[in-house]
Amino acid sequence: MFRGIRLLAPEPAPPVKCPVRAAKSSIWSVAMAEISGAQLVIDSLRREGVDTIYVLPGDPVGDIVNGWASAGHKAIAVRHEQVACMAAQAHSYLTRSVGVCIAASGVGQTNTLTGIANAYSNCWPLLVIGGSAELRRRNMGDFQELPQVETTAPICKWTATVDSISRIPTLINVAMKQAMSGRPGPVYIDLPAEMISGLVDEANVPIPQPAPEPARPLADPQEIKKALEVLAEAERPLLIVGKGAAWSWAEDELLQFVDRTQIPFLTSPMGMGMLPPEHPMNVSAARTQALKGADTILMVGARFNWLFHFGQPPRFAPDFKLVQIDIEGTEIGTNVPATVGLVGDAKMVIGQMVSALDDVPVSYGESAWLSELNAKSTENAEAIEPMLNSDASSIGYYRILKEIRDYLPKDAIIVADGASTMDISRQVVPVWYPRHRLDAGVAGCVGTGVPFAIASQVVHPDKPVICLQGDWAFGFNGMDIETAARFKLPIVWVIFQNANIDKWVRTHVDKEEDPNDFTPNLRFDVMMEALGGHGEFVQGPEEIRPALERAFSSGKASVVNVIMDPGAGRRQQQFAWLAREGRMGYS
Predict the structure, then answer these.
(1) Are 147 and 206 spatial neighbours (Cβ–Cβ below 8 Å)?
(2) How far apart are CA 285 and CA 268, in angstroms?
(3) Which residues in the chain land under pLDDT 50?
């Protein structure tokens, strides 16, 4: 279905075959420089500060991709457009910029939809440029003609179709502003084939100023004072830090605030690392107790969606007071009435609160509340200790994660994918630095692990990157471990192979061929070796640590394939992670 444009390797691609600039003359005028739409896309992205694109080359975007690579810019060519889209959004999150994905027309573009939806749910900026059928052949059944804008618009902040080659720089500039302004999110530009290959007089192309850094709004100073007064009256306060604070790079201000106030805190999964895990105010290990016992909550860059149980009883106190910080005003008071709402950038607003502490002191220190939470943290830690140290030949999650925890350096970036793998790893493996843990986020999207790991290693080539995935989750985008091998990205995948989707459902199905089961003992390690990487096969707990050491020291993309107990799960919780009838407990 594609024109035979070769998949990009790390080496520069061959020169573009179509002319990107041309000259024409007549007896009436001097020669005029012409430029192609493809070159305008390349120039516009570079002008906006883009240095890396994530792509799967195909018709009609091949001239853009090959022109980009020929100019020496970084193009990460993958095997599926979903991977390109998900890697681009992780690139955004890690760099506080707009990641760019370029996809072919029709089904190539629709393959990005799950990735776009994930970025939309996570409030991450993303620019997807999709090739599309020629405008003059719309509604004629053209090659790969689909309603791309119509299907994409509901999960984007902004969409546009290029209807004039000369407007390409302007539309890319607007897209960048839309993606980053206010609450970030994905944007989409539809690029018909003739807008890529066609030529236009360069002198007639308006060139906008590059998009500025997004505004960091401050909150109303009077509301800052009210917020501190509410916090000062609290007997059982709690700070919740989400990935919105990580996006804002608010870690310095948060640490100052916690040190000054001595407020107990916990984080969302991707808020981990925003504050030191060993901080004495960290009560994440007593999450359930903290949430249901707090009488006042300071919510920073997180939302009361399903991840925080909508802020409703019995998981929360029925009448707790809420101080809510969010850059999106419409989020204030959603699901839980806000006692004080602070609309602004998390970094700036927490900085305002730190400055205002001189006028409105807030200090908790040692308290019965903190002692209660610390006691619960100790109890929870002791409860999982036998599982962490189990020498049973049938390996469970906790033992694997304990070996990973003990081996990893503090600067490792951890990517987790697959619900039990993702959830239990949050309990066991600490995160020491901001934006050093990535997982599916709000959408609960399985399959993000491989692309997120690729982007993490591209952005941080000098840091170890480990991707923790169940075998089910690995299956979604697993072939792109070849991309990691091809680009010499030394990511280490640890595959938790329990050969099933959901042990909870499986026990309720009386069939010989259970629809929740997979083929056991698959050799994903051999697959990695065949694709140019390093493989390790682990069947006993004593083999885990040596396998990790060999994988990381290989300097190659690696798979540590751990055969584990198919019935293993997490420690029993007071509340289910998802309050829904007929729920599945994905592993």
Answers:
(1) no
(2) 12
(3) 1-30, 505, 580-587
Determine whether 212 is exposed, middle or buried from the number of CB atoms within 10 Å of its CB (0-12, 13-18, 19+).
exposed
Q: What angle do CA 6, 556, 78 make, to 5 degrees?
A: 25
- Helix (H) or strand (E) segment spanning residue 454: helix 449-459
Q: What is the distance between the alpha carbons of residues 392 and 237, in angstroms, rounded to a whole number?
A: 41
Q: What are the structural domains of the chain?
A: 21-204 (3.40.50.970), 221-371 (3.40.50.1220), 389-563 (3.40.50.970)
Q: Are 497 and 564 in contact (CB under 8 A)?
A: yes
CB neighbours (10 Å) of residue 141?
A: 8
The helix/strand/coil state of 218 is coil
Helix (H/G/I), strand (E/B), else coil: 92: helix
CA distance 273 to 465: 15
- 182 burial level (CB within 10 Å; 0-12, 13-18, 19+): middle
Both tokens assigned to 225: 């004072």
What amino acid is encoded at 99 in this protein? G
Which of these, 395, 394, 431, lies nearest to 416 by C-alpha position? 431
Return d(Cα 539, Cα 399) in angstroms, integer: 12
Measured CA distances, 138 to 109, 154, 195 (Å): 16, 21, 14
- Which pTM was predicted? 0.91
Residue 571: per-residue pLDDT: 67
The pLDDT of residue 247: 98
Listed residue (68, 17, 213, 85) closest to 476, CA to CA? 85
Helix (H) or strand (E) holding 378: helix 368-388
Structure tokens at 532: 């140019």
Q: What is the pLDDT of residue 9?
A: 38
* Residues β-bridged to residue 395: 564
**What is the tens place of the pLDDT at every residue in 272-309?**
999 999 999 999 999 999 999 999 999 999 999 999 99
Determine contact, residues 265/285, Cβ cutoff 8 Å: no
pLDDT computed for residue 573 by the predictor = 62
Residue 512 confidence (pLDDT)? 66
Question: What is the C-alpha separation between 580 and 128, in angstroms, rounded?
Answer: 33
49 — alpha (psi -120 to 50), left (phi > 0) or beta? left
pLDDT at position 535: 99
Ordered DSSP codes for 537-582? EE-SGGGHHHHHHHHHHHTS-EEEEEEB-TT--PPP-SS-SS--TT
Which residues in 518-545 are b (16+ Cβ under 10 Å) and which e? eeeebebbebbbebebbbbbbeebebbe
